[in-house]
């Protein structure tokens, strides 16, 4: 397809070197904590809060920049190579730094100002986009240069993703975290609607124009993220140890509901994702240009945005695990329809349905991580979550390019859709705790998850 204050106020954790104290730094009138019996009123009032507005706008800017860059890189590499395998290598180049840095980035997110981390990373992405523009205008951009710059962007996003994902609990009260997750997801979806279409339109004018727009947008995002006010300020943390490095992985392994949700999303999107092949479908199957490619990349975000707005007003309060499985199966069916289609309209609608079904999985997964993870471990757990996302997205792009090189793009998508449905059915057997989960939160802090 660009991401928790879990400690109970009535049962705070004991002081230890591994559990930093959290001090409140915002007044009550700055953050609206009102929630009615259904949570609907809080979901509507949440976007009116200025701290959350800044967070949301920053997410839009960052995601918009990345989506424009992805479209430009994809069309550019395919124009240079005419190779599905080369398209997959762009995804692999972004994934490898994330894989290598996973354990490091979680520690960084838990020990330093997450706003500063995000600002630095977005500044590095701005620099990469500027080099793209420079090379395009200078005429020296090659496939090798694109791979190197894609790897630089992947490294920056490896640090940025867990830092940004861990910011949200410091922006909104715990009672509003589920709605905030849906609204934050809508920021990504809004950017995924406008970003690809804008990127495709600008690329049609000239590749340099698209890269310059990415440069400007990344610069604005880097400046904006530092201004987000936080409700909490962590005190300095304990030194890094080998045990703390792997604690995020151990925590996820000890939580079958979280492990099931993360792994289901990973394998379903890894095999079912078709976004890496959209340049091939746009050019060779549907006979659309760069703007058509941008519209196709925006389609899933249109469906996802509608889904996130619905979930923000009517959050999943009962049987979220069952809803997640249903969403993944619907994702697989929509993928099959897209793979069979030769009509631009049908393909666009299939991608829209794909996005609407996928957002259920996204919101459930993010909410489980945010609400069931202690704040002092959130960066490390979010880093593992980001690795799962990167594996499903970037490594999934490589897998799609590889299979499309063997069988052709439409057969590769059809096989992926069937695999997604099969994985959802298998995971229902392997992770019954997730299927039976009644609520996103634990029944009590430190106890078993409600299931």
Structural class: mainly alpha
**What fraction strand?**
under 5%
- The termini sit apart by 30 Å
Q: Report the helical percentage.
A: over 70%
Q: Mean pLDDT, as a whole number?
A: 78
Order of helices and strands: EHHHHHHHEHHHHHHHHHH
How many alpha or pi helices? 17
CATH superfamily, by name, is: MFS general substrate transporter like domains
> Which word captures the global form?
globular
Count of DSSP strands: 2
CATH class: Mainly Alpha
CATH-scheme architecture = Up-down Bundle
Uncertain residue segments: 1-44, 443-451
CATH topology: Growth Hormone, Chain: A
* Widest beta sheet: strand line-up: 1-2
Radius of gyration: 21 Å
InterPro entries: MFS_trans_sf, TM_effector
Organism: Paraburkholderia phymatum (strain DSM 17167 / CIP 108236 / LMG 21445 / STM815)
Subcellular location: Cell membrane
Membrane topology: Multi-pass membrane protein
What does this structure look like?
The chain is an all-alpha fold and 451 residues long. The protein has one domain (40-228, 244-436): MFS general substrate transporter like domains (Growth Hormone, Chain: A, Up-down Bundle), CATH 1.20.1250.20. It has 17 helices and two strands. A two-stranded antiparallel sheet has the order 1-2. Helix 5 (143-165) runs antiparallel to helix 15 (378-407) and helix 13 runs antiparallel to helix 14 (344-372). It is globular, with a radius of gyration of 21 Å. The chain starts with 21 loop residues before the first strand and ends in a 15-residue tail after the last helix.
